[in-house]
């Protein structure tokens, strides 16, 4: 089975979810990951289903609103938001829900987080993949912003997500991180970075991470997850330049995965 190369709706920001589906269809991506955030369409299951049907592009994953900038999306309490994202994924036919680890100030949420993620995954019949994060740095100092921790390899999760840009920010090699994750690696945020304290989300191949080697490694082990392109195109000078960038990311992925479009 070939690895699906999908497009995160975050990759077309500041354009919206409808633009992401149109872009995925036009460029030839195998699916879309819906980032649930302040865009009202991203929170509307019916609207997303209509877009998926209209453009003929499936929803393959849902990113729960657990980022710093989405703390108030779907309310303030995190567990109901994760549960709602899992139900959305199930209804839309997506097999994966992306979740971030709790922030340090979310102590109640962090307590029992590993067990809670497992409970929701089993109840809804979808994969909850916990994303690798990174230590925050300011003024030459480093501090841990996440509980139980930013490195999910050290914790008792059934499914993990490897974000290449986050690996770069944390000073790790994405290839070495993939090897540490082993069979628990279920989802990939395909991007790049140069190790800046800022989370760069460069196009794959434009940073210093061994992204080509990572994709070849996954292809060689007959990996069954999705490679989701999650990059920033905010500096694109119009839709044509954005489309060219996302087409290049798709071509890069397929070249190094040595696969063609999904049938």
Fold blueprint:
Elements: E1 4-8, H1 17-27, E2 32-35, H2 45-55, E3 59-63, H3 78-92, E4 96-99, H4 107-110, H5 113-124, E5 127-131, E6 136-138, E7 141-143, E8 160-163, H6 164-169, H7 174-181, E9 185-190, H8 211-220, E10 226-229, H9 239-257
Parallel strand pairs: 1-2, 1-10, 2-3, 3-4, 4-5, 5-8, 8-9, 9-10
Antiparallel strand pairs: 6-7
Helix pairs in contact: 1-2, 3-5, 8-9
Strand order of the largest sheet: 1-2-3-4-5-8-9-10
Strand content: 15-25%
Shape: globular
What is the structural class?
alpha/beta
Q: Mind describing the biggest β-sheet? A: 8 strands, parallel, barrel
Question: What is Rg?
Answer: 17 Å
Q: Mean of the pLDDT scores?
A: 94
Number of helices: 9
| Sequence of secondary-structure elements | EHEHEHEHHEEEEHHEHEH
CA-CA gap between termini: 10 Å
Description:
The protein has 263 residues and is an alpha/beta fold. Helix content is 37%, strand content 16%. The strands form two sheets. Strands 1-2-3-4-5-8-9-10 form an eight-stranded parallel β-barrel, surrounded by six helices. The longest helix is centred in the last third of the chain and has 19 residues.
